[in-house]
Amino acid sequence: MLDDFLFRALIGGLGVALIAGPFGSFVVWRRLAYFGDTLAHSALLGVAFGFLLEINLTFGTLIICQVLALLLFVSQKQRLLSGDTLLGILSHGALSLGLVALAFMEDVRVDLVAYLFGDILAIGTADLGWIFGGGGLALVGLIILWKPLLAITVHEDLAQVEGIAVDRINWTFLALIALTVAVMMKVVGLLLVTSLLIIPAATARRFAGNPEMMAVAASLIGCIAVGGGLIGSFYWDTPAGPSIVVAACLIFIASLLLPKRVG
Amino acid sequence: MNNLLEIKDVDLIIGQRQLLQQINLQLAAGEILTIIGPNGAGKTTLIRVALGLLEPTSGSVIRQANMSIGYMPQRLHLDPTFPLTVKRFLSMDRKRPAAELEKALTEVGAAHVLASPMQGLSGGELQRVVLARALMRNPDLLVLDEPVQGVDVHGQIELYQLITRIRDQRGCAVMMVSHDLHLVMAATDRVICLNQHICCSGTPDSVTNDPAYVELFGPQAVKQLAIYTHDQNHHHDACSDCCHRGERCAR
């Protein structure tokens, strides 16, 4: 009953939602939403970079996201500018630079809307490989770093005094987030990546008594949003990426009506 | 000789700003040392240098080998979205039996909060829980950055008494930062008065009588102090042994 492309879209979307849950939880705990935005916005520059070098576009995006993550890490460490200002400059600078760079490439015609808002219905088997290979790798990395990352989330200096290599773990975490963002781009687009990170996590908070429960719940809620969004998109012929985000928002609003978990 | 911590000729310059200047201090086992000073005096910076979180521009910081440090940072900023109970907070480094957690909380007088979410604690409860986590490491040195911040006056007195009691029972050294001039004086062996450099140091009595101290905090603050120490007789006597190499605050 499901067309093949719809099936691929569903599998890809569910994969992305699974990965986004735990990462999104850290994004809200550590107040990194703006940070995720910056990484996502740089993705278009990565696409241009991919065209320029004639390499796989997801791979190009991945490289640019990693470079930006490193840049952010170093500049935060050096306290060059206040966090928000620096992120604002990098975020919109990278997005605009990406648009300008693509405009310069006369023989390249891209569907901008697909990059900005996602093109989940065009997911191919290679994309599925990226989602489950790259995203799976990111998830395994996150699970390995889980305990020290929680300690750092509580307090960086305290973690450091207690013997955790804070810099190394923070840097690895940023690299993993950059990988996640690059992988997620295909599904919801660079403008909506952060929403799929934070909305399911924020929804899950109401039902979670510990960090692990929240991460798992965020994944499940993300999956429901993907399913709901795709069904809505299929029946009402709405764009899939934004439909998924609308579904996530509706679940969030509905969750506010449910009683909050005690404790 | 037998110092847990020794800071020698430490300068710290970040960017164009001199944050610490010619800091010399030693901390012996079992001693309570309090660092006081106005806002921006570099108190937290000095603590971070002592802990090895910041590298000094020049000078040296020698920590006794294999020393266990319990650290209580100035403030935990836990996002409301972070689901963390006190129980989990206390067993983040490794799983600990419930009895151990209860014992640690009982020692700091907060046994009733074990199952509470961290964000639901009052200021005083939060400080006690963070202190309990530091104590579970069996520290030789307890480093407390403004331990009474966000606690009402009554609670502050209790917390300082608790810190003194912990030192007496465990014999650990305590290095703490305080904003407040008055209550802390009863709970400390030695005071360092910091304003980028060490203005004066010594016993609480001698420091509060030091002209450099009066100059730094103003006569008003010193007068208020008399209420707490009940010692109105000597507060204009100059102190001779507490001034660090005869330095004075240049203001």
From TrEMBL, chain A:
An example Gene Ontology biological process: response to zinc ion
Transport keyword on record: yes
Pfam family, one: ABC-3
Topology of the protein relative to the lipid bilayer: Multi-pass membrane protein
Source domain of life: Bacteria
Keyword vocabulary terms for this entry: Cell inner membrane, Cell membrane, Ion transport, Membrane, Transmembrane, Transmembrane helix, Transport, Zinc, Zinc transport
GO cellular component annotations of the record: ATP-binding cassette (ABC) transporter complex
Subcellular location per the Swiss-Prot or TrEMBL entry: Cell inner membrane; Cell membrane
InterPro entries attached to this UniProt entry: ABC_BtuC-like (IPR037294), ABC_TroCD (IPR001626)
SUPFAM superfamilies xref list: ABC transporter involved in vitamin B12 uptake, BtuC
Transmembrane segments: 6-29, 41-74, 86-105, 112-145, 173-202, 214-236, 242-259
Family, per entry: Belongs to the ABC-3 integral membrane protein family.
Task of the protein: Involved in the high-affinity zinc uptake transport system.
PANTHER family per UniProt: ABC-TRANSPORTER METAL-BINDING PROTEIN, HIGH-AFFINITY ZINC UPTAKE SYSTEM MEMBRANE PROTEIN ZNUB
Protein name: High-affinity zinc uptake system membrane protein ZnuB
Organism classification: Bacteria, Pseudomonadati, Thermodesulfobacteriota, Desulfuromonadia, Desulfuromonadales
UniProtKB/TrEMBL annotation, chain B:
Keyword Zinc (UniProt): yes
Keywords per UniProt: ATP-binding, Cell membrane, Ion transport, Membrane, Nucleotide-binding, Translocase, Transport, Zinc, Zinc transport
Alphabetized Pfam families for the sequence: ABC_tran (PF00005)
An example molecular function term from Gene Ontology annotations: ATP binding
Domain called ABC transporter: residue spans: 5-220
GO biological process: response to zinc ion; zinc ion transport
InterPro entries: AAA+_ATPase, ABC_transporter-like_ATP-bd, ABC_transporter-like_CS, Metal_Ion_Import_ABC, P-loop_NTPase
SMART domains cross-referenced by the UniProt entry: AAA
Protein name per the record: Zinc transport system ATP-binding protein
Organism: Malonomonas rubra DSM 5091
